[in-house]
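SAMPLE LOG
Freezer: B-3
Tube label: C17
Construct: single chain, 678 aa
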Amino acid sequence: MHEMVKGSNVSLAALSENVDSVVVGLGWVSPSGEGDADVSVLLLDANGKVRSDTDFYFYNNPVAADGSVQLLGKTPTADGNEDRIGFDLTAVPPDVDRIVVAASRYEGARFGELEDVRVTLADGAGEHLLRFTIDDADSVSAIIFGELYRRADEWKFRAVGQGYEAGLAGLATDFGVDIDDDAAEAEASEGGEHLEAVLPAAPVEALARTAALDAIPAPRRAAGESDAEPRKPAPRPRTAKKKVTLPRETRKSLAENESWKEARLFPVSVLKSDRDRETRATSVLLSVIAQVPEFGRRLTAAFGAPAGRMETFTEVSLPHGDTPRRPDGVIRVERAGKLWTALIETKTNGNSLRAEQVQAYMDIAARRGYEAVITLSNDVALEGSPLVDVKIDGRRKHKVALRHLSWAEVAHQAQMLIRHEGVGNAAHAWLLQELLQYLQHENSGCHGFQNMGSAWVPVRNGIDDETLCQGDARALEVVESWERLVRQVCLGLGGELGQKVLPVQRAKRGADPGARRARLADQLCVDGRLQAELRVEGAPGLLAITADLRTGKLRTSVEIPAPDQGYPLTWAKRLIRRLDEAPADLHVETLVEGEAGGPRGTLERLRPEPADLLPKNTATRITGFRLSLLKSMGSGRGNAETGFIRSVDDAVQRFYTTVVVHLDAATPRRASSKERAG
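STRUCTURE (predicted):
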């Protein structure tokens, strides 16, 4: 990988031949596990200015109509998160000279509070070409990480690393975006209500978090417009035309009785074998990908595919030695006369991918100049731990990307579009609904990760009788399965809520994923517990999950900070009132400074006496409250009613819908001591 320093530049063509489409990743590590930032992209003309406000892409305007820019969202990494942006450089308009990639923090936060602030760039095959680490972020709240620019009909990348203390507003102003200060102040005083009316696609909370986007840019003034003319209230950047979503409540059925089954576009009753399931699942998915552009682009952009005319195929025969190979499917995208091709290998019903089969497809793709091989299965891929080991012939000039997609992720993306973000028309929404119904049916075999593996029972028994030793390979297998399960839980909860849900990885800067899992496996042997934390967008704290294999109990909990103002008794009463509809067996614990734990009790006992949450020593400082639910843990390794996987999923769903949802109106989180110290 090409390591860059501030101010340096490099030609993309000198690093790879597959740079028509690239993916830029912006990453950082938060010591507290809670710091974050928003990415933005500006397209600039030869004068270094935006052509119009539509050249400004951010969380509420994430996709260019021509497909040249697409904000792909966050993806978990070993030591934090990475925000990815896809660029189809063949689609960038000819009058765009530079593309600026930036990020900004909100609520007074600074980049100096984060570690390992970096930008990476990968080619269309997914190979990381360059990396630039910003070491002098300090007190700035916005940073230009880098820029893509044209020189003599080729694209180059420059490592910029320029900070702005004035935040996103200062950055945007430098590039010709008009800022309406009066409107921004009015919006701030109205608490974001005006913004919600102007930008219905963006939640008020998301808009408020950037302090009205540090004054969201108004349209540029037309040439020749007099300064003396009164300025009209500035409209704000809008997303595309109104999208179609499906109502969450199902309409009353016209069926005569419950035995009548609704006709489905993709029936599952005829599926008798694994081969039937694989063939049907591949055909169903690829047909919907080709017919619903938003869905197809969502799944393929992350694999380096350009925006363009897409066609999909099944049961394609390709020569390979004496015996032709038949991949389960093929995706082809045409853009500007060029073809992007990916081979698809599908597994359902918990069947594992076969290394020799994937290897054959990688060899075929390399010889025929295809760009990617995409595997689909119920398993969830982990960073640094490939599902299949394939050998790459370094002598070959053409490189092929090997990517994996879980059926759970496919269902998640479909649910996000039809329930929350919307698609172009009602027919597309209905198609996605039929796809989702198919994937969620018990006979489809597309249920996501559903088996903790053969090591689950021996490890559980070894912990119970205290015979499991550190370094046992079976403990590592269980830790990997646990990480896969947690990632799938995030997809499921995020699809239900329409919000980002990401696992928190508390790892040292640059930590190796394999070494981190090995440490967790040794810790499992010592204390018998599996632990994870989830960051739910909009929640007042991290959602923690602990599976205690010794006691057979699952604990779900969240810590909420104490308010900045008011009296402790008022805090306790307000908290108990908020939890009026929460389960009576909810455990509430007061967190006090300098002590392991404070007063605690069940919600049932505390409802008549909230004062019992206060420490007896009135001088003790309350830092927050911890809310916890306990339930029995499933023992089986599978996804049955009594299985461990089902019990974890049910515990997280129950805790969020009965406890965390009531905390949405809580006082916003204060900066942690670590963040304030930064």
